[in-house]
Amino acid sequence: MSRTLLMVGTRKGLWLGTSDEARTSWEWTGPHFPMEEVYSVMVDTRGDTPRLLAGASSSWLGPQVWRSDDLGATWGETPNGAARFPEDTGATLARVWQLQPGLSADGGDGVVWAGTEPGAVFRSTDRGETFSLVRGLWDHPHRAEWNEGFGGQAFHTILPHPSDPQRVLVALSTGGVYVTSDGGETWDPSNTGIKAEFFPGERNYPEFGQCVHKVARDAVDPERLYLQNHGGVYRSDDGGASWQDIAPGLPTEFGFAMVAHPHRADTAYNFPITGAEARWPVEGCARVYRTTDAGASWEPLGGGALPDGYFTAVMRDAMCADDHDQVGLYFGGRNGGVWASPDEGSTWQEIHKDLPDVLVVRAAQVG
């Protein structure tokens, strides 16, 4: 019977949960990296041995990408940091917001992408031990006009194409969606149809500058994407070239998280938040919403199981799905509670409580 690993990154360290295939009883270790912000984690199951990566930021020593090849029993780091800006940029790494496995042109399994604050993307070819700055994006003429979101300026979404190593989609707050079709040498904005409600008048739909919160890729159609914006929920059917509104059916168009089902077409999950001025679920009722028709309709999950009186937020990377045949769903709140469903949202239980502010959750089968 396979084991399931759940990584929970918080404002004050990393917790690791393990369970069997049933995913109803969990054992925990932590905190790993106590008192460090853990904004990004990754479970890399491509090699013979699973590798865990964690982007942790120490207020004393700065940010680091840690790695473990024994499911968190021990951790290694790269001297002087796995990801560092070249001296000529004049930039200093503040946080690693995203870690994502990628494809290699030679078919290897070493590529890992990292999104950072300040807004930049790095690429590793050795499973996260060292990273190099993607200069084509850093030197982009738009960069001078990118701004900071409420939590800082960061590339929080990186979506490598599942079959073409030259194609990658990224998103940042605040700047919008960018795509490359040449492995990162050049990048184009890809925001047609996405609103920037904070810009005046005719600038509501700019070429770039949107505050995109999260993007997810459909499991079956790689050209289909789901996007949660700062005010707006969208779908693209052409790899991000254009976007259409799919917010109707949700109780609000504001939120942070967007997760695609890992196996099933046209299926995605969203955690609606009242708005920028009230960052908790509508009427304080925690609900995960699911679409099974690519956003034509949405249904709430968790009524009677997920809490009411839930006046906290679920952040952009604090919701995920595992890779079981019957998919498990997970989310963590800024109140430190972690909730799980082993059956695609039919039933829910709180599997950990009273953690620090949850920033990221990731889950996978690990053998």
TrEMBL record:
InterPro entries: WD40/YVTN_repeat-like_dom_sf (IPR015943), Xyloglucanase_GH74 (IPR052025)
Domain of life: Bacteria
Coiled-coil regions, chain positions: none
Biological process according to GO: xyloglucan metabolic process
UniProt-recorded name of the protein: Exo-alpha-sialidase
Organism per entry: Nocardioides zhouii
